[in-house]
Amino acid sequence: MQDIIIESLIACSSLVVCWTLFRAVTKYQVTTQPGSLLILAGFSLLCLSFLIDITDNFPQLNQYVLIGDTDAQAFIEKVIGSLLGLIFLAIGFRRWLPSVLELAVAKNELHQLNNSLEQLVNERTTELRMANNQLVVEINEREQAQLKLNVERYQDLLTELPNRYALLKYITAGKSKNLHNNIHHAVFLIDINNFKSINDSLGHAKGDQVLKSIAKRLSFNHRSQDYLARIGGDEFMLVIQNLDQEPQRVALKTYNHAIGILDILSTPLKVDGQVINLTACIGISVFNHHSTNSAEDILRQADIALYNAKDKGKGYFSFFEPEMQEKAQKFLNQANELHQAIKNNEFELAYQPQVDNNEKLIGVEALLRWQHPTKGMIGPGEFIALAEEIGVIDKIGRYALDLACQECATLASADYPQRALKVAVNISPSHFLQEDFVGQIETILSRHDLQHIQLVIEITEEETVSDINDTCAKMNKLRSYGIQFSLDDFGTGYCSLTYLKKLPVDTVKIDRSFISDVDKNADDASIITAILTMANALNINVIAEGIDKEEQYRLLKAKSCQYYQGFFFGKPQAITKLLSKSRLQIRPVKQPVIDQFD
Asked: Rounded to an integer, what distance in angstroms lies between the CA atom of residue 269 and that of residue 373?
């Protein structure tokens, strides 16, 4: 009985296994997997063998035996079924196990790949998190920098006052809000006089302290409704709000404000124990918001008024007037025309003769003329001051000196053909005082052969008194190249006998103001006698300029003046005219210069 139960359990188990395999094969469609069908067939044959074992114990089931009824037949059935089943299983497992192993390896590799991907994802996530944090930091820094830039854009960093951009924005905003308001306001452009000298003498650090102190003074002494700004350098601007509607009261209040500001700034200032005295000039522009003038126009008007105040001197203020605008525009037009003249070489030289006691020509003075394309010939009195003011006098001076060397290099006096012709050229004070003045002259000399002429540079007393040591050094350096110096307009400046003794000048020119009435004014005659005596004692030649009448010439000749210049001897003319009148001549190339004039 136990054998039957055991065989039945085995048969049932094999049947379950066989059924499970069949369901798995059909459900998961693995019939293409190598050996799967053989394994299924093997288990089926084993299951059949187990069922045959069970039928041996039940005779009534013999009719269902597949092969035969005898024991031999049943044995053959079981042996063949079991043997074939095992063979099929062996072959099936032999084919199936490698694929299972491959699947296991693939699964392991997939697991490792999954782990690697997770690690990469984690690393990338960490990197992204760090990058995000860095981005947040950079955004915050950029916001802070932008905030700082916005502050710097509208604030002066030194004084922490609003700057020019903030001021323009303030005035423009006020105009947009009060278009129909007839109340007048005023802009005060405050400029500290000679502030550059403070920087030069005390240093820029002390200069910055002075500017801070000025800003504090102005801040503490204006109404809270007013607006104070520093617009650059040593310039401050104060907007006085809501003065009045009545023009007379506006003028009175503005006047009182200006006086108050000048008094505040004139109070001595102490910086690091050093007392500094300041003065200022103020340009004032009165406006109301319904006017058509923009904020830039208002500031420009104040600037024009400041320019006018500076013309009056230190410690002055000036109101803007429309005539000033016209004057400023005229100045601008002239400045542009002068720049264009330099670019187009519109300058010419006219040469005025210089003669000796015998009225014989010993030299010429080169006088600059501007051949304006529409206005004709313009004398130096109309543009030299402008050239100095706009900073182009050095260009004009170099041009005049170069042109004189070019035009006169081969000329000689018709009266003294074998002597070097003196060619005098005026140099302005601002040009002479430039640090590289000597280098500029050296460059010009290198371009010309001047062995047949005596180049003379005319300077004024203004150049000599600013820095006597620097002046003497420049003059001595240029004298080593054979250049002589003439002191122009002598007697009108500040040159003392001590200065004259130190200066290496060859000639002094008595100013025409002493010459014009010398035959009528005893004082002028006495001054000329003193100059001649002093120059003779110092072994310096004298030229009397501005000789327009024979009486002047005779009187000066009687006083033993050596040389003369003026309309009486000839007006300034072009080289070609002097040549045509035989006052000058072309020097033969091989003709030597045997001596020079004393």
From this structure: 53
